[in-house]
Task: inverse folding
C-alpha cells in the first residue's frame, strides 16, 4: 500500500505510473515530461534521450496530486 502527503492511499495498481528517462531521470515534473513522438518512440526534453516505451523507466505518482514521493505503508 502506498500513501501520499495529500491523504491519498492506495495499492500499486491504483498509482499513476509515468515514463522516466533512464539516463537523467527526468519525467516527474509536469513541464519536463517525456514526450511521445509520432513514430511511437519517447524523447526526453532535457538530455535528448530517445527510445522505445519499453526502455523508459516506469515510476509511480499520486493520481490525485502527481506527487512522486510516495511512502510505503
Result:
Amino acid at each position: 500500500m502506498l500513501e501520499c502527503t495529500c491523504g491519498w492511499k492506495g495499492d500499486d495498481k491504483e498509482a499513476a505510473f509515468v515514463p522516466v528517462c533512464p539516463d537523467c531521470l527526468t519525467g516527474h515534473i509536469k513541464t519536463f515530461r517525456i514526450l511521445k513522438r509520432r513514430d511511437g518512440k519517447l524523447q526526453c526534453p532535457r538530455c535528448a534521450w530517445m527510445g522505445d516505451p519499453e526502455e523508459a523507466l516506469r515510476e509511480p505518482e499520486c493520481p490525485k496530486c502527481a506527487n512522486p514521493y510516495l511512502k510505503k505503508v
